Amino acid sequence: MTLDEINALDQAHFVAALGDLFEGPPWIVTLAWKRRPFASAQAFHDVLDEGMYSAPLDQQIALIQAHPDLAGKVALSGTLGPASASEQAAAGLNRLTADELARFTRLNSAYREKFGFPFVICARPLTKEEILQAFSRRLGNSVEEEISTALDEIGKISMLRLRDLLDPSEF
Predict the structure, then answer these.
(1) Read out DSSP for 29-90?
(2) Is there a cis peptide before residue 82, judged by omega within 30 degrees of 0?
(3) pTM here?
(4) Exposed/middle/buried for 162, CB within 10 Å: 0-12, 13-18, 19+?
(5) Which of 27, 60, 112, 131 has the highest local Cβ count within 10 Å?
(6) Active-site amino acid positions
(7) Domain 68-162: what homologous superfamily?
(8) Res 87: pLDDT
(9) Where are the domains of the chain?
(10) 41-53 vs 57-65: helix crossing angle, rounded to 10
(11) Is 78's pLDDT higher than 80?
């Protein structure tokens, strides 16, 4: 898909084509449609980020909560969405040993208990070891720091998904 094609889409087709850039309901993409045309892929992603960062706190937390646990029940059952499944597989989370899976399960539980939402990280460019280190490090953060960090990670995830969707010449 090209940026010109994206700019030409009506709202329904825009949301259908781009709604999966984020987990959960496509409210960020719906907001972005109103800001067309986009001069560049980066400008488009900047608009997406603005929508996410300027949303009310409860909407931001709902966005974070829409993310699946890493190597969690949804992943183990094989019912992750295609993008999430691919991203977790890229980090090797689909090939964990029993000990590694137990560690992810413990960390997911500890994180959810402390923060009330799942641990979100842009897994694709990382190894499982790097993710486990980040888990341990981020458990020491405050709720406010983790909301901010999770939103930053969601921004990275959406940029990679946008790169997957757009023609490479757009970047």
Answers:
(1) HHHHHTTPPPSSHHHHHHHHHHHHHTS-HHHHHHHHHTSPPTT-HHHHHT-S-HHHHHHHHH
(2) no
(3) 0.93
(4) buried
(5) 131
(6) 67
(7) Oxo-4-hydroxy-4-carboxy-5-ureidoimidazoline decarboxylase (1.10.3330.10)
(8) 86
(9) 3-62, 68-162
(10) 110
(11) no
